[in-house]
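wait is this the right file?? whatever heres the structure
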């Protein structure tokens, strides 16, 4: 399930010509003040992606809002 989720996130990012860093930046806008705080959030999400772990539900909701897609889009098979 995690692998399918991250594959779909990668496809959605490619369709919107966004990088993973831009996605993380937009997800956590206003929640970090220093580059080290952003780096910590980026590394945590990248680790989830690399290991095919599903992120927290609130982070999935933020991804859906940033990418402008329905929650179910993350779990469809393309």
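ok assuming it is, sequence goes like this
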């Amino acid at each position: 399930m995690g692998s399918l989720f991250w594959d779909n996130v990668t496809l959605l990012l490619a369709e919107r010509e966004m990088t993973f860093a831009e996605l993380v930046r937009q997800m956590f806008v206003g929640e970090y003040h220093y580059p080290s705080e952003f780096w910590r959030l980026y590394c945590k999400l990248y680790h989830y992606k690399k290991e095919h772990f599903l992120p927290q539900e609130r982070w999935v909701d933020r991804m859906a809002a940033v990418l402008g897609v329905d929650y179910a889009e993350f779990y469809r098979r393309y």
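The chain has four helices and no strands. so i think its the right one actually
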